[in-house]
Fold these 2 entries.
Entry 1:
Amino acid sequence: MMRTPNHLDQTLLALADPTRRAILQRLSTGETRVTELARPFAMSLNAVSKHIRVLERAKLVRRRREGREHFLSFIPKPMDEAARWMEAQRSNWTARLQALDDLLQEEDRAAASARPATKGRTR
C-alpha cells in the first residue's frame, strides 16, 4: 500500500540530512543501542536524539525499549516507497523528453527537405 504524500514528504525530509542518512546507514547493519549509535557523531546525544525523532516521524526507524536501554532498528519500507515514487517520476519525464526530442527532430527533417537545393555561387 502506497502511503500518502505527507508520508513521502516526511521520508524525503528525513533523508535530506547527511547525519540522518549516516544513522540509517549504521542501522542497516542491525539493531543498535541509541548510545552506541550516537558515539561516532561529533555532536551531543541530545542533538542525535533530535535526528532520531525525525527518522521515527518518517517511520524509517523503530524504537524498542528493554529496561532503561533504547534500541533502534531500520525500517526500509518508507525508503522503498520513495524510491518507487522517484522511479515513476523519472520514467514519466524521460518519456516526455523523448517525445519532445522526436518532435524537434521531425521539424528539423521537414525544414531541411523544404529548403531549395543550393548550387555553387557565381561572381
Note: The two ends are 76 Å apart (CA to CA).
Entry 2:
Amino acid sequence: MKTIFSLLAVLLFSAVFGGIVGGYAERESVSALAEQYLTMVPRDLGAPNVVTGILITYRGFDTLGEVAVLFMVAAGVGVLLGGKDSATAADPGMEPRRPSELVGNGAEINLPLIFLFGAYVIKNGHLSAGGGFQGGAVVASGTMLLMLALPATKLNHGFLGVTESLAGVVYVGIGILGLIFAAGFLDSHILPLGEFGTLVSAGAIPIISALLGVKVGAELSVIIDRFRN
C-alpha cells in the first residue's frame, strides 16, 4: 500500500510539473512594469543593479521584515540548541572526527576565495549581481566549509552576536534617517548619488547593503554552528 501511494504521489507531481514545463514560454520582451523600473532605478537611485535598488529603497519595509524573520530564526535556534556546547555534546575523551584529505585540502584552497568572494558580492551589490543577502549567504557557506574541514574550530558567538546586533541597530537608524531627511524609511537619498557606476555612489545603498551582509553572514553562521553542536 505504501508503494502504491508513493507511485501515485510521483505521478501527481510529474503531472503538475509537466503541465508547468509544457505551458512555459520565455518572455520575448520585458513587461511595462519592468521597463519602468529599469528606467527609474538608475535615474532616481543611481544604482546599476536594479534589483538591489528595489529591495533596499523601494521595498525597505519588506527587507526589514525579512531581516527580522532571520533574526527570530537565529534566536529560536539559539534557544532550542544553545543548552549544549561542543564540550558537553561530544563523548568525553573522544577526538573530533578528522575530515577527509580531499575536504581538508579543498578547504585550504577554497576558504580564502569564498570569504573574498562574499566580501566582493556585498561590496559591489549596487553595481553588479549580488548584494547584502547574497554575500552574507556566501560568507556563511564558507563558515560551514570551515567547520567541516576543521571540526575543532569554535565560533565566538558573543562577538558575532554583538556584530549582528550593531549592524541591525545601524540599519534601523539609517532607515529612520530616511524618514527624517528623505522621502521614507531606508530612502537612500540621505547621501549624494555620486558618479553613476562607481563604488561610492547610489546614495546610502552600499552602506545598507554592507550592513545586511554583515547581519546575514553572522546570523547564518551562528545558526550553522548551533546545529553542529
Note: DSSP finds nine helices and no strands in the chain.
